[in-house]
């Protein structure tokens, strides 16, 4: 990870560098930690169809379609902590998901839950990669998992070839180029070189997982996604998003992991996606007409954020050049 940080591949996520030492030693999160119990929670299965979204809508990564996974997972992890303490009163525990400074992916690998693919996500040989990771640190000395899952990526490069912004090299992702980072983590304007690659994604991206052979349909047991992750947030009307105020954003993101994306970021993402949709559909398509009208509205609204107005202007110019 230090080499990855040194190369600046974390983008503007300074907290990753600031917490690097803490992530390297779980005992700093829980004093006396001796073991980690790792879990994986399916939010989709490999037999689920890729979700189609209507024209003029912005796409949302699958993990965010339903309830906030942090709350869903932590509730059950805290219950596990309670059971551990009930059985071993002298033990101490700490539940965590991906917000804690812990290398959860590497711990899941060590626990035998899968292997780390070329797109850097954990892949289970039967269940695929549509899963969220969490765990419990404990002061108990537990038996080490004897299961080891070997790398099954082989010579496959589908995730690398399919990445719209060329963010993936074998077993490494340059976050500063990744659509998930650009739409969720980056507070600053998105570099224009990535705008077309973002397509209709306004929160996250699933492309590298959608093309992975280990997520292709198969017979037999492919697991069952937790019902809490099913929801109606597969996409949002881009016209609506460009017109949101803070209250509308809060309502749309109630009980959702998408709360991390602020109002200005969602407006920015929607403007970029609108430009891409207009280019894809053509200017005469009814959805394009609605989007063009909304982009002009953002540009002409003197109360709009200056950055949003500038982006709307450049997006309209971009569409005008290509149509």
What does this structure look like?
- The protein is of the alpha+beta class and 323 residues long.
- It has one domain (2-230).
- The chain is built from 13 helices and 10 strands.
- The chain has helices at residues 2-6, 14-18, 20-24, 69-87, 104-110, 158-162, 179-185, 207-210, 238-242, 246-252, 263-281, 286-300, 306-322, and strands at 35-42, 57-60, 93-96, 115-116, 122-123, 131-138, 168-169, 172-173, 201-203, 235-237.
- It has a 3-stranded antiparallel sheet with strand order 1-6-3, sandwiched between helices. Strands 9-2-10 form a 3-stranded mixed sheet. Strands 4-5 form a two-stranded antiparallel ribbon.
- β7 (168-169) and β8 form a beta hairpin.
- α11 (263-281) runs parallel beside α13 (306-322).
- It is globular, with a radius of gyration of 21 Å.
- The termini are far apart.
- The model has no long low-confidence stretch (mean pLDDT 92).
